[in-house]
């Protein structure tokens, strides 16, 4: 029975799918420990695996970013990012680029010491690490420990060529088209980060593991055995080619044994369905729920254009500011049981986050995607190309556009959704766990 340590950063959107994969590895016969910040111990319990506390970054998000206890500087960066999304795609991406060093590579020496201590205490045979936890990947590289890489976002978050830059979308949806000048500025900022991260990686490696092969390009550092993409295997995606590395497109990481949220939410859904023939879920993710102006616009647009629809809104800390909409056709909450709701609603409006996208496809839920930042533009492009969803630009969105788009989704299911939904359900966490174990335990891949 292999002993496996799954290390996650303290973000709900990352820890959730990683904990599901941890549970699937345990179901396949492994002894699994989930390592994350203390507030995420509940995910290990739900997955049926052991838990050890490990905090690998000062940032955190336990479900609603603004209400998560943060340091002063972390809170300042969060507010700056949210403000930048009001200016459009390039402004948001440039802000994220400026924050990248503090967000993703804080205290690599301390993380290395903590990972070494974890290895000494648990003695796992190998690790699974979130690809965006760069300090942890660097630590495992320096310590010479075997690990698999889990990519929680778009596959191009792992650069596929020398020209590909982390933080620059590989493709854009039709509704979001930056100018050549804007793209050039974004590429320059991304290249500066690429060089800075690579130099910092080399510095840490020289100081703590001079005997180990140099880590090379920082954003491209990943497992030499197996890389898991929590994403569909679209034929047009750029190909990752690394000798000896098995690339696994798991499609989605949704637990098939999803627990119900209880009588309260059953009652909410029953009340809404008694007032309308359709129910639409609006959820912009744990960070972007702070854009209550967009949430209000969406509510007004759907109520006006879809008189037969009710709305459930995940509003985070903005829930009190949207209380005026509460009524027979609108339910506003700080957080919602999204995965449970997806099998019960008729459409969803989301931001193009990887979890929301793959969960919608797996549950065959039509979606309107409003990409704000990060890899959401790449995901929106793929969803549009595969005919899985509609995409609009949140920076120029109007009530009429939003309402009309949702009306169309309620009347006509996107044509690619049934086929891709079936494809994702054929894969998933158990499929991924079995093939990951095969890749990591194969004799030809042993150290």
From TrEMBL:
Gene3D superfamilies: Glycogen Phosphorylase B (3.40.50.2000). Keywords: Transferase. This is Glycosyltransferase. InterPro entries: Glycosyltransferase_28, UDP_glucos_trans. Coiled coil: none annotated.
């Amino acid at each position: 029975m292999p002993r496996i340590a799954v290390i996650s950063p303290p973000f709900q959107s990352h820890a959730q799918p990683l904990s599901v994969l941890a549970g699937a590895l345990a179901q396949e016969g492994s002894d699994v420990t989930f390592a994350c910040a203390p507030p995420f111990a509940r995910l290990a319990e739900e997955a049926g695996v052991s838990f050890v506390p490990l905090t690998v970054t000062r940032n955190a998000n336990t479900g609603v970013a603004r209400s998560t206890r943060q340091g002063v500087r972390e809170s300042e960066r969060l507010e700056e990012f949210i403000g930048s999304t009001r200016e459009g795609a390039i402004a948001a991406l440039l802000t994220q680029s400026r924050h990248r060093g503090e967000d993703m590579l804080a205290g690599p020496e301390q993380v290395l010491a903590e990972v070494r201590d974890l290895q000494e205490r648990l003695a796992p045979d190998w690790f699974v690490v979130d690809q965006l936890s760069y300090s942890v990947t660097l630590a495992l590289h320096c310590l010479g420990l075997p690990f698999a890489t889990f990519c929680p976002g778009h596959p191009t978050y792992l650069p596929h060529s020398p020209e590909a830059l982390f933080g620059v979308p590989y493709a854009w949806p039709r509704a979001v088209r930056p100018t050549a000048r804007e793209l050039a500025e974004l590429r320059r900022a991304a290249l500066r980060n690429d060089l800075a991260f690579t130099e910092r990686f080399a510095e840490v490696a020289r100081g703590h593991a001079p005997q180990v092969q140099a880590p090379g390009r920082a954003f491209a550092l990943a497992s030499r055995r197996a890389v898991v993409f929590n994403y569909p295997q679209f034929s047009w995606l750029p190909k990752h080619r690394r000798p000896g590395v098995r690339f696994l497109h798991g499609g989605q990481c949704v637990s098939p044994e999803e627990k119900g949220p209880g009588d309260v939410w059953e009652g909410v859904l029953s009340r809404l369905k008694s007032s309308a023939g359709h129910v639409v879920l609006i959820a912009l993710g744990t960070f972007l729920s702070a854009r209550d102006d967009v949430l209000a616009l969406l509510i007004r647009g759907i109520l006006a254009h879809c008189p037969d629809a009710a709305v459930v809104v995940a509003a985070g800390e903005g829930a009190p500011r949207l209380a005026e909409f509460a009524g027979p056709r609108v339910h506003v909450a700080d957080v919602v049981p999204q995965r449970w709701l997806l099998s019960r609603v008729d459409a969803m409006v989301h931001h193009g986050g990887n979890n929301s996208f793959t969960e919608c496809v797996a549950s065959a839920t039509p979606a309107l995607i409003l990409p704000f930042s990060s890899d959401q533009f790449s995901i929106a492009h793929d969803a549009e190309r595969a005919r899985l969803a509609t995409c609009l630009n949140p920076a120029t969105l109007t009530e009429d556009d939003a309402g009309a788009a949702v009306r169309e989704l309620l009347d006509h299911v996107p044509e690619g959704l049934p086929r891709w939904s079936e494809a994702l359900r054929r894969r998933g966490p158990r499929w991924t766990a079995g093939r990951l174990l095969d890749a990591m335990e194969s004799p030809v891949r042993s150290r």
